[in-house]
Every structure is written in structure tokens, then in C-alpha cells.
């Protein structure tokens, strides 16, 4: 079996859990309006995942690239964020080619556990303990965003930062349910280690998708 779920199997379509126009809540693009495309399917299995409903790809209807791009064209923002589930379970070459040819800026949120495909204007790499990330993400990531769930995650974050290309921005993001406990530690850590910045899930505070 190939590592990427073959697009042929889906007839060139991709399973779409949801697509919505909102404000990017996390990382470097925080505060920008963006159209989010959430692909169904993930086999990484993070215990604290905030979108477990996405994991089973079969639950979600398949859409053609044309339908996905038409969805994005309804809104004024030229920024599209592709997320999931784990979007790189699929080959995304055709999706980014179509989005970029229509003038969209294509950003992705990925765990890096599956092969890189697509041409991205911005790649957010959020590695997970639950499935080893692949080497190519250390060489291409624009931002490394490590979720902090407990104290041991700081050391783990540094292990990934040590391997990442020097231009990559470094973010620590509190796991939402552990935020009360971990945010004070993250604040002290960033004060001591100014290479890192804090990323909060600001959409959750704003109560928007
Ligand atoms: C739901 S994931 C989907 C994209 C991809 N599977 C990944 O993990 O990067 C989107 C972002 O949310 C983060 N995330 C997921 N659950 C979270 C939680 N409970 N608290 C904070 N961040 C979380 C992930 O680390 C990732 O950066
Ligand atoms: N507003 C908003 N910003 C986000 N940034 C990353 C998200 C994701 O689930 O990938 C996300 C999301 O679900 N909503
Ligand atoms: S890799 Fe992303 S979508 Fe998959 S379980 Fe982890 S946080 Fe959730
Ligand atoms: Mg989210």
C-alpha cells in the first residue's frame, strides 16, 4: 500500500468535514480572515485532539477540487487554510495548483506524519508524539507549532526546534484543556527562551469557528 491515500480511489475528490469563513486563530497568521477547508481522516491519534470527529474519513462527503475552490471564491479573503484531520493523508498537488491559479494564498496545518505534497505559501508544522513526523517537514516548515500538554513537552519542543531550518518561526501553544495549568509555565519559558513565541487558540476565546 502506498503511504498517501491515492486520489484515484476518491476519483480526484477529497473528503470534506467542513469548510468555513473565519479568522485564523493560531500562529503567525492569527487575526487574518481566511477560508478554512477541513479534510476528513486522521490516523495520528492525539489523545487531546480537539477535532476527533474528523478522524473517520468515510463519514464525510467527497468534493471535487472545483467545488472546494468555488467555496473559497464566495468570500473576500484570498487566504485559504487547509487543515483536518490530517490533510496530508491525501495528495494535495491538484488542490494547491487550483487554489494558487485562482490567486489564493494556500496555507496548511499539518502534523508532518504523512508525505508532503502540494505547493504551499505557508506551512505550519505541528509534530506529535503519537506518530513520528517525516524529515521533509523540518526542511520546509515556515512555523513550528508545538502543543504543550505537560512539562515534558518543553524538552520535546526543543528536540524538534534543533532540527528545523533556521528561518522557521517557533510557537508554543497551550493544549486547550490544560491551559490554566500550563500557560503560566509557557509564559516563563518564552521569557527565558526568546526564540519562542506564544500561540493561543484565539478563535476559542472569540467563540467563532
Ligand atoms: C486539529 S489539527 C489539524 C491539522 C493537523 N492534523 C495537525 O495536527 O497539525 C490543527 C491544529 O490544532 C492543534 N490542536 C489540536 N488539538 C488541540 C488542543 N486540544 N489544544 C491546542 N491545540 C490543539 C494541532 O496541534 C494543530 O496545530
Ligand atoms: N479560527 C480557527 N483557526 C484555526 N487555526 C487552526 C485551526 C485548525 O483547526 O486547524 C483553526 C480553527 O479550527 N479555527
Ligand atoms: S494529528 Fe491533528 S487532527 Fe490528527 S489527531 Fe492530532 S491534532 Fe487531531
Ligand atoms: Mg482547530
From TrEMBL:
Its EC number is 4.3.99.3. One of its GO terms (biological process) is tRNA queuosine(34) biosynthetic process. It comes from the Bacteria. Its cofactor is [4Fe-4S] cluster; S-adenosyl-L-methionine; Mg(2+). Binds 1 [4Fe-4S] cluster. The cluster is coordinated with 3 cysteines and an exchangeable S-adenosyl-L-methionine. [4Fe-4S] cluster binds at residues 42, 46, 49. It catalyses: 6-carboxy-5,6,7,8-tetrahydropterin + H(+) = 7-carboxy-7-carbaguanine + NH4(+). PANTHER family: 7-CARBOXY-7-DEAZAGUANINE SYNTHASE. Belongs to the radical SAM superfamily. 7-carboxy-7-deazaguanine synthase family. This is 7-carboxy-7-deazaguanine synthase. The gene is queE.
